[in-house]
Amino acid sequence: MGKKKLHGLFALMLAFLLVLSACSGGSTGTSSNEGSGSEGNSGGEETVEKETIKIGVLASMTGALEAYGKQTVNGFELGLDYATDGTGEINGQKIEFIVEDTETKPEVAIQKATKLLEEDEVDFLVGSSSSGDTLAVLPLAEEYETVMVVEPAVADSITGSEWNKYVFRTARNSSQDAVAGAAAIADKGVKIATLAPDSSFGQDGIAAFTEAAKELGAEIVHEEFADPAATDFTSNIQKIIEAKPDYLFVVWAGANSPWNQISDMKVQEKGIKISTGAPDIAALSTMNALVGMEGFTVYYHTLPQNDINNWLVEEHKKRFNGAVPDLFTPGGMSAALAIVEAIKQTDGNTEADALISAMEGMSFETPKGKMTFRAEDHQALQTLYAVKLQKVDGVDYPVPVLIRELSPEETAPPVRNK
């Protein structure tokens, strides 16, 4: 019997005991106005407080992806505030969220997720920053029959080979990135080399990009995978130069980015154009040598034009000393918005089967516009952005300037969980 079924049985037994106690004249109860005779509680009826909905958020609050974890958590908190009009409640139920640091280590992610499920008895899991951490936790979502909203991990296998029915993803996946990245540079006869970390994130990202680029007629002349914790990329970049591609397409995440060494080794001066997904602001600050580069991005705060994004930008500035939301802030917000919408759809029922039924095919508004959980694999279809890096007055890093929006239909990835 699943955890939530046991909880339901316990609640039924408790309710029966309370009735017996009331009949015998005892004082046990959960009334918030006991004995007050206040308006709305006439006839001796008790006002029963509804159970708090608990959400466990797994994020890299330390480690190589610390910045991503903090962006996600900030966005999640803002999302709950927006969705509940600042009350922290929905359908009369309080919403509580508990953040646990995975340290960007899969074994720690398992420990923290187990704690959230067994000790905190959360109704949802959210996370995490690392695809490796997330893949380690997916089986627990199934074991404990708990819906997990994946954000911001992108490995295709999360909604592919390792997927189970409890997994929903508001983050885009590697294939969505790949479609956007390939559309920017791939064409018949174009020679492309790739660089990525040797991790689930990097391997899945390059596999998806290669598939999309080849469909457009491009030739992949070299694939280079670097140590995810590397700080020296000299040998990796030298191999790419020797392959003589027309483009180098880079998939990377984390503070130890290769951009400075790509510039120092004068890759572009050797006739190799650089393309990538425009990263977070910290990484953009290292990309001044790449002004003019065309690629794509998941988010930059000036790109989406809608009321939710306007609210996010202004509220984020108020709360965080004038700072604008970064790459993964809207993802955290989107995860919160999806959960609140699901709770509305089920009228507060947090049983997994009810939530899954409501969330499959569910559309909800986000800072990036409308997202929809595809019924087949629970991947959120969403807008991405084709951009060009440009210098903008008053900004000390290259800014992603919109070329065009890539629609949810245009970036819809293959279904890979069959």
Automatic annotation (TrEMBL):
<feature type="region of interest" description="Disordered">
    <location>
        <begin position="28"/>
        <end position="49"/>
    </location>
</feature>
<feature type="signal peptide">
    <location>
        <begin position="1"/>
        <end position="21"/>
    </location>
</feature>
<dbReference type="InterPro" id="IPR028082">
    <property type="entry name" value="Peripla_BP_I"/>
</dbReference>
<dbReference type="InterPro" id="IPR028081">
    <property type="entry name" value="Leu-bd"/>
</dbReference>
<dbReference type="InterPro" id="IPR051010">
    <property type="entry name" value="BCAA_transport"/>
</dbReference>
<keyword id="KW-0732">Signal</keyword>
<dbReference type="Pfam" id="PF13458">
    <property type="entry name" value="Peripla_BP_6"/>
</dbReference>
<protein>
    <submittedName>
        <fullName>ABC transporter substrate-binding protein</fullName>
    </submittedName>
</protein>
<feature type="domain" description="Leucine-binding protein">
    <location>
        <begin position="52"/>
        <end position="390"/>
    </location>
</feature>
<comment type="similarity">
    <text>Belongs to the leucine-binding protein family.</text>
</comment>
